[in-house]
């Protein structure tokens, strides 16, 4: 489902399909414009065909465990929305990261998230200098005496295409290896497949 135009007053609408009994929608900022996350109101709507496929070759598209790593909390849609609301309310210590490659992002993304393709955050593919730049400039980690200091680093909520996708799991495991605190890492295991299955708002890249 694509977002309402920024001028739409969703708050004034009475919705038939709410997120929860007490929550109709959540407003976020996405690339400088307001987007209202809500569920598709067409009760005959079906899932985006890009996320309807049940089977992909494994490996590499194998089912991920419910617990990815000790200390890393696995979360669902309502928790993702809570984090996005905190960001929208001005909490700069949190970032929701879309770990997918651009070809997948073009099919739709969660509003209010930041795309850092998994291979850009992978030292083996991108190199330590490029990864270091992301850690410092986007994730607020600091180099200190030859080591990484994550005291002020952002809390990251990471996702990709779903429970069969290894992009965000790869990044989370790599971040843990270099010392990123597990309590600052959250994993939305259901990813875009579950988000789309629930009819929640998605956005496409600007200019598309």
From TrEMBL:
It comes from the Bacteria. Residues 90-204 form the Rhodanese domain. InterPro entries: Rhodanese-like_dom (IPR001763), Rhodanese-like_dom_sf (IPR036873). Gene3D superfamilies: Rhodanese-like domain (3.40.250.10). Pfam families: Rhodanese (PF00581). Keywords: Transferase. GO terms for molecular function: transferase activity. This is Sulfurtransferase. It comes from Sulfuricaulis limicola.
